[in-house]
Amino acid sequence: MRPLTSKINPNSQQFTDNKTEMLKLVKKLEKHLEESRFQGKDKHIDRARKRGKFLARERIELLLDKDSPFFELLPLSGMENDGGFGTGGTNVCGIGLVAGKLCMLNSNVGTRKGGSVDYATVFKAFRIGQITRENKLPSINLVESGGANLPDQAKIFNYGGESFREITRRSKMGLTTISVVFGNATAGGAYVPGMSDFSIFQKKSAKVFLAGPPLVKMATNEVATDEELGGAEMHSRVSGVSDYLAEDELDAIRIAREIMEFVAVTKPHLVPEGNIEAPNFSQEELLGVVPSNPKTPFDARELIMRTVDGSKFSEFKPEYGNTMVTGWAKIHGYPVGILANNGVIFSESANKAAQFIQLSNQQNIPLLFMQNTTGYMVGKAYEEGGIIKNGAKLINAVSNSEVPAITLMIGSSYGAGNYGMNGRSYDPRFLFTYPNAKIGVIVAEQLAGVMEIIQRAAAKRNNIEYDAEQGEMIKQMLMYEADAKASAWYSTSELWDDGVLDPRETRNYLGFSLAIIYNQEIKGATGYGVWRH
Q1: Which residue, 49, 116, 299, 511, is most buried by CB atoms nearer than 10 A?
Q2: pTM higher than 0.85 for the full model?
Q3: Strands 244-246 and 207-209, how do they pair?
Q4: Per residue in 253-290, pLDDT tens?
Q5: What is the rounded CA–CA span in Å between residue 406 and residue 82?
Q6: Is 110 exposed, middle or buried (0-12, 13-18, 19+ CB in 10 A)?
Q7: Nearest to 352 by CA among 384, 314, 397
Q8: DSSP E strands: which ranges in 391-519?
């Protein structure tokens, strides 16, 4: 494969200005990520320290292999959720190496609201469960939680059981779950260690029961202590809920690592060999390459050449359907098929992408979608040209593709373009967003303009004079609201992605995602349903 050559001038004023604006967005991202690392008020952390406890993130560091990366997921979930527990909720989740094996780690932040589970945390746990199952990973829960946040119970109770169901379904698939209990695991939370394949309880700290002393007193008039109802020693020696009794936190983590030594995992389908070629361009340049304003067009090849090994890209149909870039490359040694938008999707672009998806499935190569489109082209000529049937063909190909896919939102993601480029509802294995990205049904200005046309038509139909001043106020309000809810911050808060990325980290995140994907055999689809021709 030949390396791509850049047409970007890093010394140009446009490049410099864009880098300045993108850095502002990256700084905002860093601020939000710092917020997500909040582990509770000082008084709660001090109390934990006096009890000899580690914090949630420290437990993860102790559990991971030395020098293992930690691929944190959904760190900004619930960020804009009024009434919630704040950015990231009350658990820290991600993938790393334990005993040389890729594992999903889920650590309750016991020093933040007692580790109680709010609405955002529940749905974060669901997404983590989905990633664990699809990628066939063992998982380790580091448990210290007061269970459901009772004021949120009406919103979360009916959903909460899914986490327990997922543990047992993964067990049926041969995917091991280990729970290490450092503190409370009460009410429904008691079922987390109860349904795990292995449970480790810390002596004198773990408290696992369906009902604590006050509720037991109310329900049965029985008087019992925490230790009698759910202490680690009782569960290790009497009830049998605990499989291992740990002396302290370090001993509990040691036992978890020891168990992982013999846990069976899938054999990696591919391990890259030889020297991995770095891109021919600096990752730093991505700040000036990707426009901070998604309305500004740019050639997706400029991003691709700064991401793939040796900047080498085998482009498919380069002369046809040029608003869709398709081709094969390697990222950290892992083969991947790339589909990237260069603007609005025309019929030719959709047909080309659908064919490319078929070919990648035939060759059992995973896909990477780089979304930057306002959607499918509209207008009389394009409707007559079959944009619906051709757009549907692409959506059909995406829907029935069976090779794993990653989606990266690098700019605009509007309308059915989101669907044709493998948006959240199409279950990509991983979905990441740049801080400049926008997502919605239509662009804010178009939405406001459409509403104005409708309102003017309604006034005329009813013989009423259209109030232009009021109409302009409504238009501005609609634009503001639509733009705010199209932002990367709203998107990640609502768990529409698995994290917002600093563009300079693109290659690392995609490489790690592919390493996870290639940890099992990849098999493409052989059928796609009916297509109109």
Answers
A1: 116
A2: yes
A3: unpaired
A4: 999 999 999 999 988 999 998 899 999 999 999 999 99
A5: 30
A6: buried
A7: 397
A8: 405-414, 430-433, 438-440
